[in-house]
Amino acid sequence: MTLATNVIEAEAKFDQETRLINAARGGDKQAFQTLYQKYIGMVYSLCFRLMGDGPLAEDASQEVFIQLWKKLENYRGDSKFSTWLHSVTANIAISYLRKQRGWLQRMFHIEDTDAINTEAEGSAGDVDLDEYVKRLPERARIVFVLHAIEGYRHEEIASMTNMAVGSSKAQYHRAKQLLKEWMGYE
């Protein structure tokens, strides 16, 4: 393929997605369903990394698409749709997690999310990084995922999570230290 062919194909995909977005904005449920099918994997993956829990991630993913249906008109096209959706997903997932935390704490009588048992259940080779990340305390996990995996700057994370930039950096450092310890790198 030539560069010109690649450019033409990329423009066609962009135009197709733009048509889907505009149709969904106009209430076309089939167009929205197509967007859902295209992006549910990305949305669920980010929700799962932030929450560390499959059922909560599924619920948060559905919340993302419910909110997306209601607020699709807010997409201005300044960036790729996937980039915008990624940011929307992170914000909704964090908000959803805050709402769920109160319910989970009442349900399980948890005083502090740091009361997670951090004892390794096997050797470092038995568990992949995602399993270790799921075991991180909530704030450390959120910051670690957003910074190390998703590439957000600490200033952005601080804004998204309503914490100070220094707290974001401290939580990231804490997450790295715990992961090193659990994986046997200390």
Radius of gyration: 19 Å
Low-confidence stretches: 106-126
CATH topology call of the largest domain: Rna Polymerase Sigma Factor, Chain: A
CATH-defined architecture of the largest domain? Orthogonal Bundle
- At the first level of CATH, the class of the largest domain is Mainly Alpha
What structural class results from the helix and strand content?
mainly alpha
Please tell me what the overall shape is.
elongated
* Averaged pLDDT: 82
Helicity level: over 70%
What is the count of β-strands?
0
Question: How is this structure best described in words?
Answer:
The chain is mainly α. It has two domains: 1-110, RNA polymerase sigma factor, region 2, helix turn helix motif (Rna Polymerase Sigma Factor, Chain: A), CATH 1.10.1740.10; 116-186, Winged helix-like DNA-binding domain superfamily/Winged helix DNA-binding domain (Arc Repressor Mutant, subunit A). The chain is 74% helix and 0% strand. The chain contains eight helices and no strands. It has helices at 3-25, 29-51, 54-71, 81-108, 129-135, 138-149, 154-161, 165-183. α2 packs across α3. It is elongated, with a radius of gyration of 19 Å. The model is unreliable at 106-126 (pLDDT under 50).
